[in-house]
Design a protein that fits this description.
Length: 340
């Protein structure tokens, strides 16, 4: 099969590796020095269980693995799967305009999972939810998708680019839980799950909205508190105040599932324990903050804020923590600009 991975970050590289290792043709789209290094010397990937190295490989370009910087250089290829693995700030209309020609009428598309998606209310079951079935709160993105072709996949790995060309998967938690959003893609979703299981984890899931919600609220809660406290996972696990803040954010967010009668498939304590089991991990936004890079917290909060307005729900403590952290980030950026 032909697989396009649009975004050669740490997760995108691991997905590319999983697809290539199971005999599929992979087109990996990257940029910058990371792309240059991979193009020259191949993609070096290490897969660990915290401190234990499980697997290590260098994947170089060949007739089954293409490392590219410009998607427009791909000619006459029909893709079975398209993974969109760019950062949320880059998941925009410009990116989708580039991708659109490669998302055919039968191409399964796996968009980012961290932010509550534009299709959140589509095909939502339950009589009480009928009034929400046509709600679209992100029309700039949704117009590029065939909704029936979407496969939702969440990503539960601690993964990082250690330096250009070198990716380390520090810990695999649940791997890649996935499910079709519409019945049309069931066979494609089942096939994709079987492929992932050959090299990673990909559990069966009953309710994909519950999965993606938990991933999104996890990301928002842990990244917000990590940025506020400037703690890695080990430090968060040892600090009761931090864990209490995480609990409060998750509890507020769970109102969304309750109102829509979506099952809460994992309780809050299990979510906290699962995430903090990656003791060597530092939350991605804290890593970016320390490096002076732009963080994505505003994208996450935008998704929750949009849904809360539609459902008339308050996330007062979450909003307070979000604004507190963004003030901190903006103050640091202003200081950096003055010192340039």
């Amino acid at each position: 099969m032909n697989v396009l991975v649009y975004g050669a970050g740490a997760i995108g590289c691991h997905i590319g590796y999983c697809m290539y290792a199971t005999g599929n043709v992979v087109y990996l789209i990257g940029r910058g020095e990371h792309y240059n290094q991979m193009k020259r010397d191949g993609m070096h990937i290490r897969i660990c269980d915290n401190e234990i190295l499980k697997r290590e490989q260098v994947v170089k370009e060949d007739s089954m693995f293409y490392i590219m910087s410009d998607i427009n250089n791909i000619k006459d290829v029909k893709f079975d799967y398209v993974f969109i693995t760019v950062k949320l700030d880059d998941y925009n209309e410009h990116a989708l305009q580039n991708l659109y020609p490669y998302m055919g009428k039968n191409t399964a598309v796996i968009p980012p999972c961290t932010k509550l998606p534009f299709w959140w209310f589509y095909n939502l079951e339950g009589e009480s939810n009928e009034r929400f079935k046509d709600v679209d709160f992100d029309q700039q993105l949704s117009k590029y998708f065939v909704r029936e072709n979407i496969i939702c996949m969440t990503m539960w790995l601690s993964s990082v680019i250690e330096n250009p060309g070198n990716v380390c998967v520090k810990h695999v938690q649940r791997g890649y839980p996935l499910k079709e959003v519409y019945p049309k893609m069931k066979n494609s979703a089942d096939k994709l799950r079987d492929i992932f299981k050959l090299t990673c984890k990909s559990p069966d899931v009953d309710n994909i909205r519950s999965e993606i919600f938990i991933k999104s609220i996890n990301s928002f809660a842990f990244n917000t508190v990590a940025l506020d406290r400037e703690f890695n996972n080990l430090q968060l696990s040892q600090d009761e105040y931090s864990k209490d803040c995480i609990r409060k954010i998750m509890l507020e967010g769970d109102q969304i599932l309750s109102v829509l009668n979506i099952p809460i498939i994992q309780n809050i304590e299990d979510r906290i324990s699962q995430t903090l089991s990656s003791t060597k991990h530092t939350m991605s936004m804290l890593n970016d903050y320390r490096k002076g890079k732009q963080i994505e917290l505003d994208c996450l909060w935008e998704g929750f804020s949009s849904v809360c307005k539609i459902l008339r729900i308050d996330m007062e403590f979450s909003k307070y923590m979000y604004e507190k952290v963004m003030d901190k980030v903006c103050t640091r950026q202003s200081s950096a600009d003055l010192n340039e």
